[in-house]
Amino acid sequence: MSGTPEENAAAAQGVLSYFGTYSVAPNGPIFHIERSSFPNLSGANARRVLMSFTGDVMKYQNAATGRGGQAHIEWKRVAP
Questions:
Q1: Phi/psi zone of residue 63: left (φ > 0), alpha (ψ -120 to 50 degrees), beta?
Q2: How far is the C-alpha of 74 from the C-alpha of 69, rounded, in Å?
Q3: Of 78, 47, 69, 72, nearest in space to 59 by CA
């Protein structure tokens, strides 16, 4: 909590956050972004590519990240 301005800027540049709702289509999840730390994503629908859906685990990827490359994400359902 006591970083220098340079340290804080470097940390913030590597973070993407957003919130909203999502739906799951046959080819992967679609995130309906209400607000984002990247203002140009607010109000957007972000489609992801489904890799696998096995039991309680869904794996998907973001095929084109803002820094190049791909992001692979895994969600696991938890019991209530």
A1: alpha
A2: 17
A3: 72
Range 4-10 contact pairs with CB under 8 angstroms and sequence separation of 24 or more:
none
Report pLDDT digits (tens) over 14-70: 788 899 999 988 888 999 999 998 889 999 999 998 999 899 998 998 877 666 778
∠68-29-50 over CA atoms, to 5°? Answer: 70
DSSP string spanning 13-70?
Answer: HT---EEEEEEEETTEEEEEEEEESSGGGTT-EEE-EEEEEETTEEEEEESS-TTSS-
Provide CB contacts within 8 A for 22, sequence distance 6+. Answer: 29, 30, 31, 32
